[in-house]
Every structure is written in structure tokens, then in C-alpha cells.
Amino acid sequence: MVTVNYDSVKKAYGDTIAIEDVNLHVDDGEFAILLGPSGCGKTTTLRCLAGLTQPTDGTITLDGHDVTDVHPKNRNIAMVFQNFALYPHMTVRENIGYPLKVAGKSKDEREERIDEVAEMLEIPELLDRDIANLSGGQQQRVALGRAIIRRPAVFLMDEPLANLDAKLKISMRSRIKVLQREMDITTMYVTHDQEEAMSLGDKLIIMDKGHIQQIGSPDEVYHQPANQFVAGFIGSPSMNFVTVRRDGDRIRADDAPDTFDVELDSEVADRYRDHETFTLGVRPQYFEVHTERTDNAIEAAVEVTEPQGDEQIIEVEVGDQPVSLTVVAPSAIDAERGDTVWLTLDDDLVHGFDTDSGRRIVGAGDQNRGVASTPEGEMTSD
Amino acid sequence: MATETDQATAEISSFQTDTTTRESVLLWVDDHLKWLMTLPAVFILFALTFYPLVRAIQMSTQQFLPTGTTFVGVQNYVDLMSNDAFLNSLAVTGKFIGIAVGVEFLLGFGIALLLNKKIKLRGLWQTLILIPMILSPTVIGLIWRLLYAPNGLLDYIAAPLTGGANVGWISETSVALYSVILTDIWQWTPLVVLVLFAGLQSVPDDVREAAIMDGASVRQRFLHITLPYLKSLIVLVLIIRLVDALRVFAKVFILTRGGPASATNVISMQMYRTAFRFNNFGEASAMAVSLLVLVLILAMSFVKIANVEFGS
Question: CATH code at A299?
């Protein structure tokens, strides 16, 4: 049983605050992902657990033991670095076996474990090679091997796939997931790639500007984003945001009140009864595109179409002072630059955000498609 | 109209012939540019390195007499073997190198490690430390001669230990060599600092941190991570210092002229005396060639032992 707990952790460099008010909990065997744009503090958060960065304030506990001031080498935590950080003057075998060597394990025991790990990572034939002669993917596996060989209490990974090409990234991703499941080791993983995060994590910790924005399962952060930042960060293409004014069940875009004028389902509109203006958030997938005039639809001019195979991404503009929207439509829809199309909203799946605070307006009947609510989902204030 | 065209054609064809010759010249230059560009350097290399070397080898086989030179084969080398002054100078040089380079290396490594910590005013320290290296050995010799002068600054500083008596820094047989060595250490430790500090800076942070996470102790990290990163630089700086220390001349010449009583009579000093005081250019050349061979053997065995590849 190894659980990780951050309690009000803060790290400041002089007047610059890297992370603040970080509270989080990772369960035993859980795969937790720290996700956010560059500079959001996710790596700092990870390094505080590793012990490579000393928090300015707050405590970090491993299994209830306060490790905030414990030396990194005594925390029994293994880490995989973005640039692999292999020892260039050692062979693959020596690299993987290094944690056991410094722990004073006998040569026989070391060799046995090295072979075992190499088997797991499918690299037995590389063991006697020099690091310099390995490809990026092979180096990545050696780095993983070095991390897992001593069966650490916690596994930390700092953007371990960032330096691999797209195809390798996907195969290594599933390998890491399988490995983590098999070894059942509590893991914290840093990435800026939301797709990677969604596919790997049990729990996503989304950070921005040094603060945790939301903690939840991949489904939760996608379908019930805590705020506009999370909504915009998760999902590809990004969610569309339009400032709208509500008049009964009707909403009109501030910048294009004549064209962007739709009537919401009264149950949906009721969620926003306390807000006269708010920011409407609609994922590109939740527009329906019509090539003929349709009731309760937004008239839009096609700017760009990007075919993606089965579907296409269409950039449209609405109104004279144009509101730009991104829409995902089936490729069967015949639209070209300059065409006029009509968009209808999937009412149930729109979100409203408080224009000032950015927080999602949650109301009765707040639906999301096909997702069972997860009880552990917690939200923190920012 | 017709003439105009003819004229134009003629112009074109003359232009073409022109281009062809010019082009062929340019092409030739282009093809051989690398040789042309290296020519001055090759010339200087030959004039300043190969010629003196060949000339020294040639001179080492001759005996120089007021009446002229005669070829004596390896006699000069044979004579060296039984030349007490030369053998003594070898011993003095060996002692000089052993102590000077040893202390420079250890001290320099220590300072480099200190600089590599996040100390305050690091840039200032770095700059200050480099100053001795920039000065010419002659200037350094002169500065230290003043310091070593009887009743000079060093005598003043040492007064509490010596009870006010002058130490005789460069006039006392048992002290003089150490005084010269101290001067050399003062001048060349900065080079070791510079090279090894650069090496320490080249150890990537994440590799250092990976070793911490792998559970390595400070000592293990130094031995397993830092030292291997520095290995080739250590060999490099030791070879540079070794070769340079073998050739030490200006400092000795200015401080002691090899004295007192041959106490600081390093090889280069002995060579200088043999050649210019006793006009025995043949034997001096034989010393120079022996020294060269010695340096080559030392440097190569060093690289071999340390198993370092440069430029890979």
C-alpha cells in the first residue's frame, strides 16, 4: 500500500510562485497524470515528490509518513526523465543494474534482476550495447528498466515520451500502461499532451499557472470540466467559447446577435437562469452542420475545411463582426470555402461558464453523454 | 540590322569563351581551395616545427668545435648517460613535475568542485582565478622574485614562524626548488580549474539527478558519474601540464638560473647552459631530442592507460 498525499504544497523562487496550494491524493497502484501547458507547475509538483525540489511550504506524505525533508535517495522513488538521463559511459546492463549496484546487491542477484527486467521490456539483445548506439525508443526502454528494477514504492515519469516520434509514442504508451498495471505501482506521470493523459491515466490532475484546476477521471474532466481553462485544454479540437446574452430561453452572441440567435431547450436554459450573460462552451463535435436552412440554426460562412478521413474540421465565421467557430462534421457533408452552412446545437452537451470567474455553471439536469459519474472526482478551488 | 545581330552574336560568343576560361580557373580553384587555404598553415608548421625538429636531430649527431663540426653518430647520446649534470637535471625536473602537476591537479580539481557549487559571486571568482594564467611566465618570475627577496613580503609573512630570520626562498638549496614549484602552482592551477570546471558544468543535471534517484551516495555519484564525464578532460589537462612543466624555463631562469648549486637545474636550464654557456650544441640537441622522446612516451602511455579517445 503506497499512497501519495500533497498537503498545501507551495514552491516559490523568490517572488515567483511556481506552484501554490497543491492538495492531492494518489491511491495505491493508481496511475495519476499531471497535465497542463508548459510552465504550469506540473514538473515542479512531481519534483517535490521526488525530493529534487524542496517545497517552500506544505507537506508531502508517502503512506502517511512525512517525506518532505527526506533525502531523495531514501524515498524509494524511481524516476524516468524526459531526456532519459542514461549514464553514457555505462552499457545497457550497467545502466539498468545501477540502482541495485549502489544498493550493494550482489552481482548474481543483480544479473538475475537485469535479465528479468530486460525480458519484460523485450531488450535482452541490447544488454551489452553502449548507450550511444541505441535509438530513442531503445533508450526509453533502458530508462524504464532502470526505474523498475528495484521495484520502487512510487514511479515518477516526467514527459517520458516527449522525445519519441509519433508512432513510437503510441506503442510505448501502451507498454507503459501495461507495465504499470502489471507491477501495480503507484505512478505519477507528467505530460502536456492531453491525448496521452486521457489514454493513460486513472486520474487526471490538471494544472495551470501553478494551481490545480481540476482532479478527476478522464471522463469527468472531459464531460464535466470545472472551469473554462479545463474545458478549453481538454479535447481536440478545442472547445468553442462564445460570450452570449440570455433572454428567456434564447441566447444571442454578444458579437453577432442577429445571426447567432438560438433557442435552448428550456430545461437547459434553466441552468443559466441566474446569469444574464455567460460564456457558452460548445465542443466542435456537438454542432450539427446542415447545408440547407434549418430551424433554430446559426448561419455561418465556411472559411477553411480540413479533411481528416472519416470526418472534417470546418472553420466557420458567424455574423459581420465575425465570431469564429470550429466544427467537426462527417466528411459526407459537402462544404467548401465561401459556402453558407447552418449549425444546430446539441443542447444537452453545451456548457456555460461564468464570464468573470471562468467556473462552469452547474445546474439541475446537467447532462453528459454516456458517462457514469465517478464518486472520487474532486474539485478544488483555484 | 544584320550587322547588329552579327555583333550581338560575336559578343555572346566572346563572352562564352571568356566564361569558359574563367570558369575553368574558378573550377580549379574551387577543387583545390582546401589545399590553397591550408598552405600558409602547412608552411608555418614546416618552418617552425618540422625544420627545427629535423635540424635538432641532425645537430645531435654532431660535435661542435671552434674549428667546425664533425659527425659523431650517437656519441652525444652515449655521453648523456654518464653526464651527472644531465642526470641530476632529470631528477630535479622529475621532482618539479611530480609535485607541481600533482598539487596543481588536486588543488585545481578542488577549486573547480567548489566553483561548481552554487556559491555567491561565482563569476567574479572565476575571473579572479584566471588572472595568473594570463600573465607571461617572465612577468610572474619577476613578481615572485620580488616576493622572495630577502626581507620581502614572504619573509615578513613567515616571520612568526621563522622568528624573523630570512628564509632564503630562492637562495637556500633545500628551499629553492619548492619556491619555484610554488610559483608554477600559482600560475597553472587556474588552467586545471578552468578545464575541470568546464567539465563539471557539462555533466547534465538530469543525469546527476537520475543518480540521486537511483540511490547513489555523494561518493558513488562522484566516482560513477562525475569522474567518467571528466575522464578525458583530466587526461587532457594532465598531459598539457606535464608537457608544459617538462619545458619550464623562464621562471627558473629569472628566479634562480638553476641554482643554488643545481638545486633548481631543470632540463631546459641544463640544455640552455650546455648550448649557450659551453657552446656544446651537439649534446644540448641530444638532450632536446631525448626530452621529446620522453614526452611522447609519457603522453602516449597516459592516453593508453586512461583508455581515452580524443575527438570521437
Answer: 2.40.50.140
- Amino acid residing at A104: G
A169 and A264 fall within a common domain: no
Pick from B214, B217, B220: which is nearest to A146 by CB? B214
**C-alpha–C-alpha distance, residues A160 and A189, integer Å:** 8
Report yes or no: A162 at the B interface, CB cutoff 8 Å. no
Q: Which residues, 6 or more positions from B179, have their beta carbon under 8 angstroms from its beta carbon?
A: B144, B148, B169, B170, B255
A240 and A205 within one domain: no
Give the up-direction half-sphere exposure of residue B140: CA atoms within 13 A in the CB hemisphere. 22
- Count of beta carbons in the 10 Å neighbourhood of residue B52: 12
Asked whether the beta carbons of residue A81 and residue B209 sit closer than 8 angstroms, the reply is yes
B224 touches chain A (CB under 8 A): yes
Q: What is the pLDDT of residues B186-232, one digit of tens each?
A: 999 999 999 999 999 989 999 999 999 999 999 999 999 999 999 88
pTM for the model: 0.77
CA distances from residue A41 to A10, A44, A114, A230 in whole angstroms, order as listed: 10, 5, 34, 15
For A212, phi and psi rounded to 5 degrees?
Answer: -75, 130
Taking the domains of chain B in order of start, what are their residue ranges?
Answer: 2-59, 84-306
Number of domains into which chain A is organized: 2
Element (H, E) at A260: none
Q: Tell me which residue of B136, B82, B133 sits closest to B111, measured CA to CA.
A: B133
pLDDT in tens, A59-74: 999 998 999 999 998 8
Q: Is residue A38 part of a domain?
A: yes
CATH topology for the B84-306 domain: MetI-like fold (1.10.3720)
The ipTM assigned to this model is: 0.82
Do A336 and A305 touch, CB atoms closer than 8 A?
A: yes
Let me know if residue A265 belongs to a domain: yes
What is the DSSP secondary structure assignment for residue A185, as one 8-state letter?
-
Let me know whether A211 and A253 are in one domain: no
Q: Structural domain of residue A234, as residue ranges?
A: 230-353
Cell 463535435 found at: A285
The answer to whether residue B31 neighbours chain A at the CB level (below 8 Å) is no
Alpha carbons within 13 angstroms on the beta-carbon side of residue A362 total 8
**Residues A44 and A167 placed together within one structural domain of the fold:** yes
Residues A234 and A213 in one domain: no
- DSSP H or E run through A277: strand A277-282
The DSSP bridge pattern shows strands A186-191 and A154-158 to be parallel
Show the DSSP H helices in A224-292 as ranges. Answer: 228-233, 266-271
| Residues A217 and A237 grouped into a single domain | no
Q: Is B215 helix (H, G, I), strand (E, B) or coil?
A: coil
A89·B228 Cβ contact <8 A: yes
Q: Are residues A218 and A272 in the same domain?
A: no
